[in-house]
Structures are given as structure tokens and as C-alpha cells.
Design goal:
Blueprint lengths: L1 H13 L7 H4 L1 H34 L3 H28 L5
Helix pairs in contact: 3-4
Length: 96
């Protein structure tokens, strides 16, 4: 229950409180914006490629134990994608 409350508090304080001008006017904002846009987009691309590969592996694997292992990893990759997207869009509604 505590983690849920902490997450909700973090979401409430983080989402869209940063003025739009901050991202280009201030050094720290510009640096974070560039990281989120460049490295962040590469992160999403890499995780999406891994997600696609694991989906294919799940579909093609006949051994149920191995398939479950792939499915578990697939779930973790999807969690990572969701967490990053949440971080990405919680800072700036339009993204970077």
C-alpha cells in the first residue's frame, strides 16, 4: 500500500509542473531534454526491438518451460517500456 501512495504522490508532483520554457532556456533543462530525446528514443527503439524478438520467440518455441521463460522476460521488457514512457511523458506532455 505504501508504494502505491508514494507512486501517486510522485506522479502528482512531477506531471507537467515544469514550464515549457525551461527545456530550452536553462542549461539543465536543455541537457535533460536532449538526453530524453536522443538517448531516450534509442532506449525505446531498443526495448521495442527486444519486445518484438521475444514475442516471436514465444510464438515459435515448442518447449513450455522455455516459452514461460521468454514470456517472463517479455513481461519485464514491457514493464521497462511502460516505466520509461511514464517517466518521459510525466516531464513533458508532448514528449521530447
Amino acid at each position: 500500500m505504501k508504494k502505491s501512495t508514494e507512486k501517486n504522490a510522485a506522479e502528482t508532483t512531477a506531471k507537467f509542473v515544469i514550464p515549457e520554457t525551461y527545456w530550452h532556456k536553462f542549461v539543465v533543462g536543455n541537457k535533460v531534454a536532449n538526453l530524453m530525446h536522443g538517448d531516450g528514443q534509442e532506449t525505446i527503439d531498443c526495448l521495442t526491438t527486444i519486445e518484438d524478438g521475444l514475442c516471436e520467440a514465444c510464438k515459435d518455441e515448442d518447449d513450455p518451460k522455455i516459452r514461460r521463460a521468454f514470456e517472463y522476460s517479455l513481461g519485464k521488457v514491457r514493464e521497462a517500456l511502460a516505466a520509461y514512457r511514464d517517466a518521459f511523458y510525466s516531464l513533458r506532455k508532448e514528449g521530447f
